[in-house]
Design goal:
CATH architecture of one domain: 2-Layer Sandwich
Bound molecules: zinc ion
CATH class of one domain: Alpha Beta
Strand order of the largest sheet: 3-4-6-5
CATH topology of one domain: Muramoyl-pentapeptide Carboxypeptidase, domain 2
Order of helices and strands: HEEHEHHEHEEH
Shape: rod-shaped
Mean pLDDT: 81
Structural class: alpha+beta
Distance between the termini: 136 Å
Number of helices: 6
Helix content: 25-40%
Low-confidence stretches: 37-42, 79-88
């Protein structure tokens, strides 16, 4: 029979298919067996059993606070000697900086004016005289109205100004209170016009030949106007009042006064 081998082939195929499906079946079975049961929804109505209170050992009683040590107070030392006074802030007085009085042994007589002898510091005096001589050569007469002034002299002058002008504030716009005048340094002076003495210590001195000459030349000798118009110290314009700043020492006097003084 020719068909017999075919049948046998067919039977073999059935057996193979059967075995194959058996393997597939077993595989599916085992896969389901080991699948996590997370997908399984909890059946409603079933409550979680109440949690058992664990049998924990009792908490240890808190450690009692140790008593704070009594602070050892140091005995307050007894005051000995004098109390040191706090350093005083240096301030301006009506816009004027404080100045120390120059060593009077260093003063040099420059001229006599209004019957008074006028002195300047030994460093400033010869420079002023040189400037005065040079101005003379150009037909300009420079006079020294006032040079060095002691603190006592300034006090007398300031009191006179108060009497004349009515108040300290008004006096301070024209003169510095004692201890606050550049004249104490021996490096400042009031200059007049020898040909126009009626302009001495007056604002109109600014229109004099002497002032015009000073405005153009004084800087060459190391002199400068202390209180130009609109100065930051708020002192009235004093066209007659000049100071010597032509040496390190001289310029330091005025720079220090400005730097060490509170506004
Ligand atoms: Zn002056």
């Amino acid at each position: 029979m020719k068909s017999f081998p075919f049948l046998r082939w067919f039977q073999a195929l059935i057996v193979i298919l059967g075995l194959f499906s058996l393997i597939l079946g077993l595989r599916t079975y085992f896969e389901n067996l080991y699948k996590p049961s997370a997908k399984v929804a909890p059946s409603p109505g079933v409550k979680d059993p109440p949690l058992k209170t664990p049998n924990l050992p009792p908490l240890p009683s808190p450690i009692p606070d140790s008593p704070l040590p009594t602070p050892q107070l140091l005995p307050i030392p007894k005051a000995t000697g004098k109390l040191t006074t706090p350093k005083q802030a240096i301030t301006t007085l009506y816009g004027h900086f404080p100045y120390a009085q120059h060593d009077q042994k260093d003063l040099v007589l420059v001229a006599q004016y209004y019957g008074r002898k006028e002195y300047l510091a030994s460093e400033a005096a010869p420079v002023f005289l040189k400037m005065k001589n040079d101005a003379e050569k150009e037909g300009v007469s420079l006079t020294i109205i006032s040079g060095f002034r002691s603190i006592n002299d300034q006090e007398n002058l300031f009191q006179k100004q108060i009497q004349r002008l009515g108040s300290k504030e008004a006096a301070a716009r024209l003169s510095a209170p004692a201890g606050h005048s550049e004249h104490h340094t021996g490096y400042a002076l009031d200059i007049g016009d020898g040909k126009n003495p009626n302009l001495d210590l007056k604002y109109d001195f600014a229109a004099s030949d002497a002032y015009k000459w000073l405005a153009n030349n004084a800087y060459k000798y190391g002199f400068e106007l202390s209180f130009p118009d609109g100065n930051s110290q708020g002192v009235n314009f004093e066209p007659w009042h000049w100071r010597y700043v032509g040496s390190n020492y001289a310029s330091q006097i005025f720079a220090n006064a400005r730097r060490n003084t509170l506004p």
